[in-house]
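Summary for the funding panel

The consortium committed to producing paired sequence-structure records for every protein in the target list. Below we show the first two records in order, beginning with the earlier of the two.
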Amino acid sequence: MQIDFNLSPSPSPSPSPSPSPSSLSRLHSRDESRAFSKFLSSLSDVELLIETKAAIKTEREATAVVVRYFKEINDRELYLRYACSSLFQFATEKLGYCAGSAQLRINAMRLVEALPEIEAKIESGELSLSAAAKVQSFILLEKKQNKIYSTEEKRELVYSCLKKSTREVERELAKRNPDIQKIETLKPVGRDRFQISFSISEETEVKMAKLKNLFAHTNPHTTTEELFEKLIELGLEKFDPERKAARVLKRREQQRMSAQPSGADEPYQEKSDQPHQEQSVQAEGTSQSSTPNSFHSHEVECPSSQSAKPTRARHIPADSRHKVWARNQGRGCEFVSDSGARCGSRSSLQLDHVHGFAIGGTHQATNLRILCAKHNRFVWRVAR
């Protein structure tokens, strides 16, 4: 039987009225589900396809509405108030989306931000959600290769992808930049294994081979994964502030133990040329960890009540920085929402003064906390 999808419903007798979208959302009980299944089985083939098209239209309209909601949440940066460092984290942790679905909607939202008229195309189905997301990803990847798209170029790109399947959109984008398919990908391939895929230049391959040869005396068959792990360890040893803090504090403890006189009645006290610093990491950690909101400004003494004289140099002494990173213990951003949720993001972490430096706050570790860049700006805006 041939069915014309462009036909309107025929005037022939129709079955029971189709449930409205609001009633569909209430089909939770087994009896309601059974009733809806009975309704579907009562439809003829033509009627079933007509009802399916109507449901798809409703789904597209709802998707367009969700994209608009995402845009408003993003414009308000509402996710920051709920201890999320990004809209993606908010969508997955607070709204219940899987990672793929969240990213599709966020990418589509970014495209709508640049071209507001695209929202109608998504709602009508001329541009699918996945196609919109792929176009936006393509534009971002082109930007990383120093190719900036003007508004007109973005519009031309989008219109070239209208009414095309996802596979056809991929071909269109690959035709414009064949190298775009060589982007880095990361996907799980086991319980504790991941597969990374990316392309490298010939020059990088030569350097990698040379580095493997340098390790050949200890491991003549060094794999790329082993080389990758060695390089990551070297990078973390050099740049990770937590590891730096741990090394410094361990070295100071060893110096303190070696300098302590044997049989002395009083414990050895380390001399410090920075009198405004705290004297004990342990005491500091005890005072800071008693409550989830231990870094809120009302729990930190004002500079006027502290006996130590604050320095007015903006540079935070290394001693304070090391203590703060050691106290954090790799837990990431310390922002805590009103409901007690902690951000915990480990991206773009920064030191922040609980009691602002501009209004007299000191560089003491008790007045410092670690925030991600977005929550650092958010806290500053809220405090104004």
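The next record, for a separate protein in the list, is shown here:
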Amino acid sequence: MLVADRYRLHAVIGRGGMGEVWRGLDEVLGRPVAVKLLLNDGADASAEARFRLEAQTSARLHHPHVVGTLDFGTWQDRWFLVMELVEGDSLAGELAAGGPLTSERLAQVAQQAAEGLAAAHAQGIVHRDIKPGNLLGDRDGTVRIGDFGIARFVDDPSAGLTTTGQIVGTGLYLAPERAIGTPASSASDLYSLGCVLYELAVGRPPFEADTATALLYQHVDAPPVPPSRRGAALPPAFEAYLLSMLAKQPGERPTAREAADWFAGGAWRGAPEPLPPEQPVAAARHRGPQQPASGGTRRRAAQPSGTRRRTTANPAPTARRGPEQRGTTPATGTAPVRPAATGTAPGAPVSALGTGWNTTVHRVPARRPGVRTSLRRHSRTTAVIAGTVLFLSALLLGMALF
């Protein structure tokens, strides 16, 4: 069968509610293609509009992890959509053929699917039907997102082309906010991707029920069972991140961009975070009489690169020293600043920060009589008065006796 005098159709590779997909050949350019033909039975009045929307949506995306659109038009009163041919199987077929995926393969699927979603979300497009059958694996394992048939533009509420209150998408992967009638958002796609990853790791979706209503209630209220309790051999970091993608509140889930970067960085393996670089040992600080003889040096905490830390050097204790020891000046009553060097005279304020730091040394005000000094003077005055009273009393007593 030759479509539009250009695309030679060879075999059907998939069927859906709106149409069927054929493996074909573009005889003009000599390349293999996938041709999607809309069913012409008039069963769905909005099918044509949705088919057109799929072509317009996917045509806006040019990304290695999104199936690209090549052509769109009509042939014998049937709409057709020409797409890139993905030489491989969907993840639904991969799961059915080989069972649950390994952690390495699952991380690859997560990263590449999140990359494709991030590209769509950047264009204001929400897929709304992420499921294993819409994630296609190429021969080399590369994952591509296909079937934007029910996608919607965030800035166009009518683009969903559904009646009020109608939920579109596959119930096994439906986000909680969509189950209660809230419009889909980019966070909804991340929840659906989390459900897909869960199923690929365990072999079963996170929620199952006998009826569609019971299934929706589970998405809204039931916490997912950790994959490890169902036999999945995932690293703890991977499992924790996967469960965060299944958070009930959209704001608690990572974005597609964050998820792609997290999986690409290898954090899913559970490797410890690298320690901050260790700073050189600071210069030795003069120890006062209250510091132990051994203690040596102080180590400065690591600083982020490109920042300067403003620190304050604590002056040495000045208690019980006279003005000549404090080095105070009559004019200002402040202690002079001495350089930090080996052999500094005792009592001098010394910086223990070393070179390269913006060090601020506070001026130490001249010592004034404190509470202790005032108490001493008060005690002496009291003793003098008491002695005088005792002397006069004795004198009067003596005079009385004689």
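Regarding this second record: The CA atoms of residues 115 and 340 lie 55 Å apart. Confidence is low (pLDDT under 50) at residues 156-168, 281-368.
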